[in-house]
Amino acid sequence: MAKIMIIDDDKEWAENTAMLVRNAGHDVMVSHTTKGATQLLTEVKPDLIILDVMFPDNPAAGFDLAREIRRTKPIKNTPIILLTGINQHFEMDFSSADIDPDWMPVHDFMEKPVKMPVLLKKMERLLQKKS
Amino acid sequence: MGSFRLYPAPKPGDVARQQPTVNGLPSAMLLQNALWFTRIRWSVVAVLSGFGAVCILIGNDALRRFGIRPPGLWPLIMAFILALLNVLSIRWIRRLSTRTSFPWADVAANIWFQIVSDLIVLTVVVYRIGATETVIAFAYLFHITLTCIFFGRRDSFVVTMVSTALFLATVFLEAMDILPRSGIFMRTSLDQHNMLRLIIFAGFTVFVWFVLWYLVSTLSDAVRRRDCELEAANKHIARADEEINLQMLRVTHDLKAPFSGIESNIQILKHTHWNDMPESVREIINKIEARSMTLRARISDILTLGSLRSAQSHDKIVEPVNLRALLDAVWGDVQGLALEKKVSVEVTGHASVVSDTRQLKILFLNLISNAVAYSYERGTVEVAIEEEPDRVNVRITDHGIGISDEALPRIFEDFYRTSEAAAVNPNSTGLGLAIVRQIASNLRLGIEVESEQGKGTTFHVHIPKDRRRNHNGENYDH
After folding, report:
1. Do the Cβ atoms of A95 and B260 come within 8 Å?
2. In which band, very low, low, confident or very high, does the pLDDT at B169 lie, cut at 50, 70 and 90?
3. A-contacting residues of B 318-357, CB under 8 Å?
4. Which of A8, A20, A88 to mutate to test the interface with B (most CBs of B within 10 A)?
5. Mean residue pLDDT across chain B
6. Cα A127 from Cα B52, distance rounded (Å)
7. CATH code that applies to domain A3-130
8. Which residues contact B355 (CB under 8 A, 6 or more apart)?
9. What structural domains and CATH numbers belong to chain B?
10. B253, B336, B358 ranked by CB distance to A54: nearest
């Protein structure tokens, strides 16, 4: 059983996903904001983070948090799966190919709406790699 | 969610009122002009040296025969002093140029050094050539005019006053015999004791200077003020663009979020209570899911099309694009759909073009996902990159349902779907090929379609190769 942290401002989606991830046998925590998230993550030390890009106060808050995580020693190597629902309409178009230690320091990337079996498969792969 | 800020368009003149006083050119431009100023000075050094040398060659007796007073060595001495001052100015400018940033005051100090040293040298030259018997005094106008352009009215007025003071002091000291009488002609107006003529000449000269100062400084100020207005308007437009983009992001996020909610709730039902539900309920849930997906895809396509239609030519990000890498990435994105339909996709060939990666990606995503969606199960889709002398051709071929001859001219219309297409792909929005048409128009691509009903369709995308320069004029042709 792994500790998973879901950080997404869409409460309904986050809670539903948390339920499905719990059903897959993991311990899940949910946060709806990136504010104070680094502190929380340092305390919880999750095995994997599912992180949304856009939050109401900052359209790139997910990127900022991912970069902050990489600078925070106890959690710097925690795998991150980045999620977005705003891709393709804008020039900030990005994909798995853009994963980069400085610009997009995450381990995997998915577009919303997320297909649960695909998310679970990606999670298992990253958790296996971590262990 | 979110906030809204309205930026009303500025009225002409409003921006200027918000701007600080226009004191002169920006520092980078001022530095360029400081360097240009030193180049012009070399020609003055050359003229003075040439004049001195010619006078020596002709000889004093010959000069006197022409009524010219032999100048001696002063032209050469003044040329030497001017050259020395110029070398100092150039070294100063080079030191400033090596810095990553330089304050305006540092560059202005260099130009002031050049102007003051020029005015001193010029006053000596004016005195030697003849302050009132020649028109050499009008050489002060060069500095008055240049200061009006480089700096504001106050500074150019100071230069006009200093020039006037130096010129009138020379005339006065000479007239009062405090300075020995000088001039290149043997008989001077001072020799003739025509004081009235002297006063009229000096007064008229200074009058012309002040009129010219007033005209040039007023015009230069107006031009600079206009520059400031344009710069502020540009900044305002850029800020408004940024705000629109942000609002679009928020609107897109807010429009799509409910569908994520609906679909995640359906996933909960499917993963937790699916087996407890009767078949009829499951069917309804599947229909809700399908309609939700269709509506989300339609919103997504409408937003994409809107964003592409509002994009101006300067919105294109023109850069080298590795087509093979781009098509492999697109293939990755449609892999899920291809696996679902058991359709294999084969990408062949390599080429690079200069274009907009984002728009090309959307175009190929639409064409390849269409090819997969309208293929028969276990079919194949071939994507071939072919390099031709003046263009790159990307050929996307499927062996699916095809398009009838009647429908073919209409496939790029908004929301157009044939009944066969709607039957095979009920989730289609009918906007995919409208998006393709818009991108083709934005990027000036050529598209050809060949199709045979029941046998398949081939799209040819022609990307021109001659667009080697981007909109900033940078050359990609190495």
Report:
1. no
2. very high
3. 325, 329, 332-333, 336
4. A88
5. 83
6. 88
7. 3.40.50.2300
8. B316, B318, B319, B321, B443, B463, B467
9. 14-239 (no CATH), 289-464 (3.30.565.10)
10. B253
